[in-house]
């Protein structure tokens, strides 16, 4: 081989060819763009050579630099290396990925004969190694957003990083749209300020808003040329649905349950290894049991994986997957990300994925051998979900995907950051203000908001509310801000980050072995002797003590399955479009897809009894049953938007007449229920569905305070209002235990202008009610014509709403009045019982 | 049920009438005694000193509330069932000033404190105030006062006639048929005594599981409501007979 100039792209290509591969064009593009000084977003599916595309540029650059230096001076390699270090930071959202990334980097580094050292630094790294790293960072460091921020809080870090050339952000699509992403934005702002030559390389899976994702990553004030590099992502994907033998014509959520378990087993027989995705941890436990019950011979070949399991258990499953020792793993989104397992030949998705991107992501977890296709088997949990999967597949083929909306102005996180940056070194207000505004999240931060946040970190609330003994950040006479109290420093460093865990109870065997954790609210309802499914085992509670549920193996049948509070995802906006399109086709007699043909009886019954709406129509059914009057409307805009629409319509209608509504919503539509006849006309309803005064009406129509209180939990934790208990601190920390609800109330009463309260209300609108989508939906509805049907029985569309037990009620009564009314209801019920001669209380 | 003026709620234990107040206090008319539990003064300061920003003002409101209860009942004795002060580090000059002002403003009142677990660190501080300290059980016939309620066997064994206690910060959550929920601080009235709600402004609460013979009087905004029937209960248990005046 001819000796080539190290540092040239040719040199890299020669190495890759020597491995028997051919570099992909997008990799070559990425190397060139990097060497030309571009910021970059590489957009490609996992397992397609993204890591090489990202890391070779910086390695070549350093080889080039050191060969130039070597030409100038006779200094040895070692000193050159030291002069350079560290050169590249690699940020990964999953610490479990850090080890694999380190290996890939080492492979490339040794292949190109670079002298670089690679290390990882995550929550799993020992404090001994962390200390060594603080004194001397490696050339390439693989870390997480949290660990990076903690690293930046040490005084000498920026000095060491001043020659940093590249920061790679892996799986950027996972971080975008979360406060964790903002945590990273703030860290990047700090890095760019201290390392002027820094180039940013983002790696992302397919997203609906790639351009915006790139803007957020580099920040609004970036002057560097930039380039999006499109990699390989058109791996072949097939999606096939399991069609139930009989089609219920009145489907409702979860109704099919685990009845299709045999179909899942059959599918599993056709692949070496299957990942079986469910949408909740609860479902994971149930399906695992059902599969084992149906096929006891799977014991030992079937595993379970979800986020509440102990990391040891999860590690074991991941290792077994890697070694191809398993036939199947029942899992949740906990396996959405991470290393690819070559043995996984297919994915089984149980229940609608609710989004096109999620479907694509999950399908992509299978088929990693060269030229293999990704195969996904869809198992519906109710018949209408077949409509969703057909729509999702069609949109996917058209390349339509969801985007992720970036977070803006999370002051809770800013409050945290302002303390973090003052832990070991001081800063000045003006400089910090300029620095944080170079992030996308805080570009629109006003000086007032910034000063309020500084004040909050310094002395509690603004100058009007007093916090006599509070001091976190201190300002000296020269205007330098810094944290002085040692205890505060130690405590703050341990609480950096945005991941808010619900209060959890550890589940442990009597011998001490940890199985994972369940939520306190579930554990508190258990009594000793109760049996529950967890970690794929039947466990019996022995006792609950100090946040530990002590258990032993149970016998018999479970009395409970833990539920975890978790976001049930609403139907995405793009998928909603697809579904409306499918229904219109059916309305016009088109049953093109196999799944739609299967649910033809449902759709035809809907048309026969009522109507199948076209995209230009909005269907309203007024159904009178023994229970009263049900006003059902179907915009197909996702559950959260429907909850908002239901609240608005109920509120506006109830202002025109005295009436009480119960509300129900699902992904397809919403319902207003009342015991008396709501004397409404088509015109009235359509007049009520407008976007004016939306905010005030929706706040009045929903239990906005309760929602804000819930939202405040996360804010309180991030802003440092609630302390998580740390090991060894349990006892002494007892007098500092407080619930976020109580803090919310105290703020409301004693510091009502606190901006964190306002943030909670804004987050309710944006996250719990999907504010932008709600407005879009109302705009769309105003352009549709309302189709009204008066009916005597629930239609297939209405059925799930009518039986739905989760109802919110719109009430103008005071709490005291409501409680009195409840008493009256109970009285009435009790006296009826007496009249019937049954035994009373 | 007997509801008196100003939303008070009358009960009888061992032939003694007592009045529950919507502020969370309890008045014992025949002894002219106002009873409160769990004020947790200095809690906001404790948090502030630990780097957690909680606004000032909660102590002020707690003491104002107590002052107006004293005036409304014309109580001569005040009995505090523990956790008067949240923690030792909650003391500062402002709190000392406030308490001095408060005790001086009520010169003819007798102050008694049954020590609670949170008061432990403040013993030396209490010396400067006109307040008598007691350890539980503190008996004023027919009642025995506790901060933390001993377990039921001990109560029965030692034949206390009726007890009063704090410590638990009782609350219940109720839901109506339409699933609107609410969490209410409450008086937990058992057959042989009762637990008072936490009186302090900045206090959390703990959900109780009343048994079938218990009654639960909830604080709803500025009113007391008997919410016994709205609470789901555990198994009944054997206790002394209920002797309230209004349950026949």
Strand order of the largest sheet of chain A: 3-4-2-5-6-1-7
Label the overall shape of chain A. globular
Structural class of chain A: alpha/beta
Percentage of residues assigned to helices of chain A: 40-55%
Strand fraction of chain A equals 15-25%
Summarize the biggest pleated sheet of chain B.
9 strands, mixed
Share of residues in strands of chain B:
25-35%
Q: What sequence of helices (H) and strands (E) makes up the elements of chain B?
A: EEEEHHEHEHEEEHEEEEEEE
- Total helical elements of chain B: 5
Helix content of chain B: 10-25%
What is the averaged pLDDT score of chain B? Answer: 85
Quaternary organisation of the protein chains: heterodimer
The rough form of chain B would be described as: globular
Question: Of all protein chain pairs, which has the greatest interface, and how many residues does each chain bring to it?
Answer: A-B, 50 and 39 residues
Report on the structure:
The complex is a heterodimer of chains A (841) and B (248). Chain A is an alpha/beta fold. Chain A contains 33 helices and 27 strands. In chain A, the strands form 5 sheets. Chain A has a 7-stranded parallel beta sheet with strand order 3-4-2-5-6-1-7, sandwiched between helices. In chain A, strands 8-13-12-9-11-10 form a 6-stranded parallel beta sheet, sandwiched between helices. In chain A, β24 (661-665) and β25 form a beta hairpin. Chain A is globular, with a radius of gyration of 29 Å. The model of chain A is unreliable at 726-732, 805-810 and 833-841 (pLDDT under 50). Chain B has 248 residues and is α/β, with parallel strands linked by helices. Helices cover 19% and strands 29% of the residues of chain B. Chain B contains 5 helices and 16 strands. The longest helix of chain B is centred in the first third of the chain and has 16 residues, at 58-73. Chain B is globular, with a radius of gyration of 18 Å.
């Amino acid at each position: 081989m001819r000796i080539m100039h190290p540092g040239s792209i040719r040199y890299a290509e020669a190495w890759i060819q020597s491995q028997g591969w051919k570099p992909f064009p997008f990799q070559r593009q990425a190397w060139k763009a990097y060497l030309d000084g571009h910021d970059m977003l590489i957009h490609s599916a996992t397992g397609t050579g993204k890591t090489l595309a990202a890391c070779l540029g910086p390695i070549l650059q350093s080889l080039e630099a050191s060969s130039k230096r070597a030409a100038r001076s006779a200094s040895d390699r070692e000193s050159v290396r030291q002069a350079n270090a560290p050169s590249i930071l690699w940020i990964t959202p999953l610490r479990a990925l850090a080890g694999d990334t380190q290996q890939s980097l080492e492979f490339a580094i040794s292949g190109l004969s670079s002298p670089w050292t690679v290390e990882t630094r995550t929550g799993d790294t020992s404090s001994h190694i962390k200390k060594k790293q603080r004194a001397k960072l490696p050339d390439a460091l693989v870390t997480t957003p949290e660990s990076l921020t903690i690293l930046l809080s040490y005084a000498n870090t920026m000095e060491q990083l001043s020659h940093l050339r590249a920061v790679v952000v892996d799986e950027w699509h996972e971080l975008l749209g979360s406060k964790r992403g903002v945590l990273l934005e703030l860290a990047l702002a700090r890095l760019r300020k201290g390392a002027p030559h820094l180039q940013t390389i983002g790696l992302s899976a397919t997203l609906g808003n790639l351009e915006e994702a790139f803007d957020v990553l580099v920040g609004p004030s970036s002057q560097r040329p930039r380039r999006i590099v499109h990699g390989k992502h058109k791996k072949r994907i097939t999606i096939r649905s399991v069609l139930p033998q009989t089609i219920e014509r009145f489907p409702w959520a979860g109704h099919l349950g685990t009845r299709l378990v045999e179909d899942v087993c059959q599918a599993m027989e056709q692949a070496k290894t299957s990942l079986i995705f469910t949408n909740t941890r609860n479902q994971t436990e149930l399906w695992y049991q059902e599969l084992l019950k149906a096929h006891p011979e799977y014991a030992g070949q079937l595993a379970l994986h979800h986020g509440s399991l102990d990391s040891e258990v999860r590690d074991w499953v991941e290792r077994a997957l890697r070694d191809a020792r398993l036939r199947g793993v029942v899992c949740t989104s906990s396996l959405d990300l991470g290393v690819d397992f070559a043995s996984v030949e297919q994915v089984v998705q149980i229940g609608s994925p609710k989004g096109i991107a999620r479907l694509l992501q999950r399908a992509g977890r299978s088929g990693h051998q060269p030229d293999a296709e990704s195969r996904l088997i869809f198992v519906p949990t109710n018949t209408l979900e077949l409509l969703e999967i057909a729509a999702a597949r069609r949109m996917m083929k058209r390349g339509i995907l969801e985007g992720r909306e970036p977070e803006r102005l999370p002051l809770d996180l800013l409050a945290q950051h302002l303390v973090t940056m003052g832990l070991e070194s001081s800063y000045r207000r003006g400089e910090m203000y300029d620095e944080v505004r170079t992030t996308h999240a805080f570009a629109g931060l006003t000086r007032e908001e910034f000063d309020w946040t500084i004040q909050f970190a310094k002395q509690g609330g603004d100058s009007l509310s007093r916090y006599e003994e509070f001091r976190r950040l201190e300002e000296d006479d020269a205007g330098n801000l810094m944290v002085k109290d040692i205890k505060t420093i130690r405590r703050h460093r341990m609480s950096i980050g945005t991941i808010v865990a619900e209060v959890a109870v550890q589940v442990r065997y009597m011998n001490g072995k940890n199985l994972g954790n369940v939520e306190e609210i579930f554990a508190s309802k258990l009594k000793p002797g109760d049996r529950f499914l967890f970690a794929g085992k039947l466990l019996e509670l022995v006792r609950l003590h100090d946040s530990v549920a002590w258990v032993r193996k149970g016998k018999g049948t479970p009395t409970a399955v833990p539920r975890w509070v978790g976001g049930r995802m609403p139907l995405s906006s793009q998928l909603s479009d697809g579904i409306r399109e499918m229904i219109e086709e059916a309305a016009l007699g088109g049953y093109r897809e196999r799944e739609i043909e299967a649910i033809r009886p449902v759709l035809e019954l809907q048309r026969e009894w009522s109507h199948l709406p076209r995209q230009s129509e909005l269907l309203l059914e007024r159904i009178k049953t023994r229970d009263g009057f049900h006003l059902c409307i179907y915009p197909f805009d996702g559950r959260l938007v429907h909850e908002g629409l239901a609240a608005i319509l109920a509120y506006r209608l109830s202002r025109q007449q005295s009436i009480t509504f119960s509300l129900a919503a699902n992904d397809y539509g919403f319902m207003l229920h009342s015991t008396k006849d709501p004397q409404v006309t088509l015109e009235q309803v359509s007049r009520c569905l407008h976007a004016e005064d939306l905010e005030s009406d929706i706040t009045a129509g929903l239990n906005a305070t309760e929602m804000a209180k819930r939202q405040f939990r996360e804010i309180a934790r991030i802003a440092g209002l609630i302390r998580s208990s740390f090991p060894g601190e349990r006892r002494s920390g007892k007098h500092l235990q407080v619930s976020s609800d109580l803090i919310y109330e105290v703020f409301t009463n004693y510091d009502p202008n606190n901006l964190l309260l306002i943030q909670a209300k804004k987050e309710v609108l944006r996250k719990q009610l999907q504010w932008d989508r709600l407005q879009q939906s109302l705009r769309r509805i105003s352009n549709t014509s309302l189709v009204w049907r008066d009916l005597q029985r629930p239609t297939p569309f209405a059925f799930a709403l009518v039986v739905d037990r989760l109802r919110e009620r719109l009430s103008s009564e005071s709490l005291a009045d409501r409680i009195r009314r409840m008493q009256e209801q109970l009285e009435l019920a009790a006296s009826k019982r007496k009249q019937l001669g049954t035994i009373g209380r | 049920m007997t509801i008196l003026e100003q939303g008070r709620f009358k009960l009888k234990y061992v032939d003694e009438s007592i009045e529950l107040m919507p502020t969370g206090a309890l008045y014992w008319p025949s002894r002219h005694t106002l009873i409160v539990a769990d004020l947790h003064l200095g809690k906001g300061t404790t948090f502030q000193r630990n780097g957690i920003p909680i606004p000032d003002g909660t102590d002020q409101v707690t003491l104002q509330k107590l002052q107006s209860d004293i005036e409304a009942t014309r109580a001569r004795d005040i009995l505090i069932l523990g956790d008067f002060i949240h923690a030792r580090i909650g003391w500062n000059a402002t709190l000392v000033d406030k308490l001095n002002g408060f005790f001086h403003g009520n010169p003819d009142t007798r102050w008694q404190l049954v020590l609670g677990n949170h008061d432990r660190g403040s013993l030396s501080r209490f010396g400067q105030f006109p307040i008598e300290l007691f350890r539980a059980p503190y008996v004023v016939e027919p009642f025995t006062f506790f901060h933390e309620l001993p377990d039921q066997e001990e109560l029965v064994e030692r034949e206390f006639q009726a007890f009063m206690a704090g410590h638990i910060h009782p609350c219940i959550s109720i839901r109506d048929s339409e699933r609107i929920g609410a969490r209410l601080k409450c008086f937990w009235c058992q057959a042989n005594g009762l637990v008072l709600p936490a009186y302090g402004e900045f206090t959390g609460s703990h959900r109780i599981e009343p048994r079938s013979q218990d009654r639960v009087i909830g604080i709803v905004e500025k009113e007391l409501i008997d919410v016994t029937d709205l609470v789901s209960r555990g198994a009944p248990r054997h206790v002394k007979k209920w002797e309230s005046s209004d349950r026949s």
